[in-house]
Amino acid sequence: MPGCTPATARSCTPPPRGSRSSTPRSTSSPCTPHGGSDPTRAGYAADVSSAAPPDSDPSETARVDAWTWAVRLFKTRSQAAAACRAGHVRVNGVGVKPAQHVRRGDEVRIRAAGRERIVVVERIVHKRVGAPIAAQCLIDNSPPPPPPEVLASLPQRDRGTGRPTKRERREIDRLLGRSGPAAT
């Protein structure tokens, strides 16, 4: 083996397969340059930096997907991340990716389930919290949801009836107040 001297070559070779050695293996072999884990090596876990920006304290910011999930604006973190990727989440008027960080005072706009939610970040949380605590973490400036009778008044096409005919399409357009194609 490279790096082993003839005196240490015996300790560098593993015992034959299936046999048990009478001496326990040491954690630091004379053939390994650093003898196991060395805190000065580049790959050591203590050197791994966090995902937060270097200029801010990690407790002051949170990922937008994690924060919106933690304050119960989305049921799952996957849904929060998917909404960010689809462009349904805006922070201070700018579309964001899931890894974008939010801080206290940021305005978060979310389009989901047919309505827009407008919230201001009041407190940063990293783990999902109960509804009473979640209400303290944000200021909800959302417009009120539309009344249920307005949603129910819109006609629904029966499922499985197929595509509307030209005549049915004209009736639907008239009912919804849309103008038909311009005659030339």
What does it look like?
By secondary structure, this protein is an alpha+beta fold. The protein has a domain at 61-147: Structural Genomics Hypothetical 15.5 Kd Protein In mrcA-pckA Intergenic Region, Chain A (Roll), CATH 3.10.290.10. 23% of the residues lie in helices and 15% in strands. It contains 6 helices and 7 strands. The strands form 2 sheets. Strands 3-2-5-6-7 form a 5-stranded antiparallel beta sheet. A two-stranded antiparallel sheet has the order 1-4. Helix 2 crosses helix 3 (77-85). The longest helix has 11 residues, at 166-176. Mean pLDDT is 77; it is low at 43-56.
Count of strand segments? 7
Oligomer: single chain
In CATH, what is the class of the domain at 61-147?
A: Alpha Beta
**Sheet of most strands:** 5 strands, antiparallel
Shape: elongated
Order of helices and strands: HEHHEEEEEHEHH
The CATH architecture designation of the domain at 61-147 is Roll
Given the helix and strand composition, which structural class is it? alpha+beta
Helix percentage: 10-25%
**CATH fold naming of the domain at 61-147:** Structural Genomics Hypothetical 15.5 Kd Protein In mrcA-pckA Intergenic Region, Chain A
| First and last CA, distance | 88 Å
What characteristics describe this protein?
23% helix, 6 helices, five-stranded antiparallel sheet, two-stranded antiparallel ribbon, alpha+beta, 184 residues, single chain, Structural Genomics Hypothetical 15.5 Kd Protein In mrcA-pckA Intergenic Region, Chain A
